[in-house]
């Protein structure tokens, strides 16, 4: 029983963490399918062991929180609840039978469940007055009124005014609009959105309405939450009235009377989902009669008169045309299956990573094979299996050659890993990714140095390694003339950012060097121990292994890096350019005062940016996390601190200011 209780507690923590990533940060780490499996397991355990049930369980409450940084908090007039998920035909029939047992003549409405961000829209005397996100679903949401006004589907004046109307809708992105946003972000060298839902949610929470307008969000309305001045007997009647008022409502909804009809409608939506202009994440089954809805009521999390059916991941057959090899920043060679294009979850897919030789062997995938492909969590294409009975007679097993596909140099498989790497540090395929890593936020943090600029400078021959970055100022006029970084203002802005980065602490430089297995935390440990790049270069294996956060593989990687004459030449030119090689005096005196402590930063701090505060924490031996949990020791809160602050208060985590942090390290 103690093991059961422990599993339940761990599942609750894990689901709460992923709820925060999905609802509040718009940046999920796992697929919907993986999340659903966690929730199903927790729900099953709570049903089997009711003594461990809790009102605080994520199965009993809506997943999100209201975020102050997104706007003013607004109190909900009507709760914006979640829906109970079901995953099988049996569960659908069980729901319908339960309803019909109490209300034998009731009808059901089956609708597409578009994947977006839920909102409530309020109207006074026929005029739109306020738009609110779901937030925590019960108490508060975020005011997004001005952003709603930028959405072309929104209705601002009713054709038949009523004293008060509140409707619930979904803000989403059409697939083509989502792809256009990502294309623009990619051209600017910025991080791409993982899927349309994340893009829609992140965009609606923008503080600049013009960004919302540019990204072309869409909106449909699926429920009347509250109305005065008119009455409806059922849901379908209200949808038809909303249509007449100019609202865009869910297309092709079906009114059903039996479980068979409900299931047929669900299957029709599932069979057509690849043809929609947007992504869906299921089908919703609702009781049509509004009086019956009142009768069945709701729990604290879900209405008892509706469920959401979640489709299994869509899978399709296609044929492998080739297995293409690519080389990453660290020289790792990655195989990718290129196949005949197929439509999955509304987008065209023609490639999927095969990860490494072990995965190829496990699948036994060969060129010419017919394969089953799906999108994991409807996001990332993956090869599920090979249809062996359709294999061509001449198909042969595929082996990654021990030759780099980019430079032709030798490659080798690392001991105790599945990775095959190119051994040539001057391999051109590795250069772009190595430069991007060096200039990135976790390393030298050179603002505005996006992928498009990196590729242009490499293409024109100005940058052949990371040291060359600090010498491109010599070619300023040429770069402006060629328009590589834009006009004079943009070019000078980037050159200044490069110049400013010379003064960074040396842990950022160590991270940027791209030594295998040396991330930001290990870099800080090395800086605190050796104080300078020169001393680190001369360190022995025994000295390295004695450093906190350093293991056998990491120590060997450091020695290997400094043994390479190409790297020594790069370091020499970095030093000649004036890049800092020494720990600052205050850093040299650090003694791990925050060792073992985990911090979360939220809001705008008075005197420094988030990355600077992260640097201070790591400098003193502390760790930085992106989300609040019971393992968090301190939350550092600035102005407009949002959901992380609320979470800390709920969990009893100590909240401190920037000043209190510095008192702590003193």
TrEMBL record:
According to the UniProt entry, its GO molecular function terms are: DNA ligase (NAD+) activity; metal ion binding
Any idea of its EC number? 6.5.1.2
Cofactor(s) this protein cannot do without = Mg(2+); Mn(2+)
Keywords, A to Z?
A: Coiled coil, DNA damage, DNA repair, DNA replication, Ligase, Magnesium, Manganese, Metal-binding, NAD, Zinc
Identify the CDD domains for this entry: BRCT_DNA_ligase_like (cd17748), LIGANc (cd00114)
The residue ranges of the BRCT domain are: 589-666
Q: Which reaction does it catalyse?
A: NAD(+) + (deoxyribonucleotide)n-3'-hydroxyl + 5'-phospho-(deoxyribonucleotide)m = (deoxyribonucleotide)n+m + AMP + beta-nicotinamide D-nucleotide
Q: Which residues form the active site?
A: 113
User: Which sites bind Zn(2+)?
Assistant: 404, 407, 422, 427
Q: Which residues form a coiled coil?
A: 1-55
Q: Which GO terms describe its cellular component?
A: cytosol
GO biological process, alphabetically ordered: DNA repair; DNA replication
Q: What class does this enzyme belong to in the EC scheme? A: ligase
Q: Does the keyword DNA damage apply?
A: yes
Q: Spell out the family assignment given in the record's similarity comment.
A: Belongs to the NAD-dependent DNA ligase family. LigA subfamily.
Chain's role: DNA ligase that catalyzes the formation of phosphodiester linkages between 5'-phosphoryl and 3'-hydroxyl groups in double-stranded DNA using NAD as a coenzyme and as the energy source for the reaction. It is essential for DNA replication and repair of damaged DNA.
NCBIfam families named in the record: dnlj, PRK07956.1
Which protein are we looking at? DNA ligase
- Which gene name does the record give? ligA
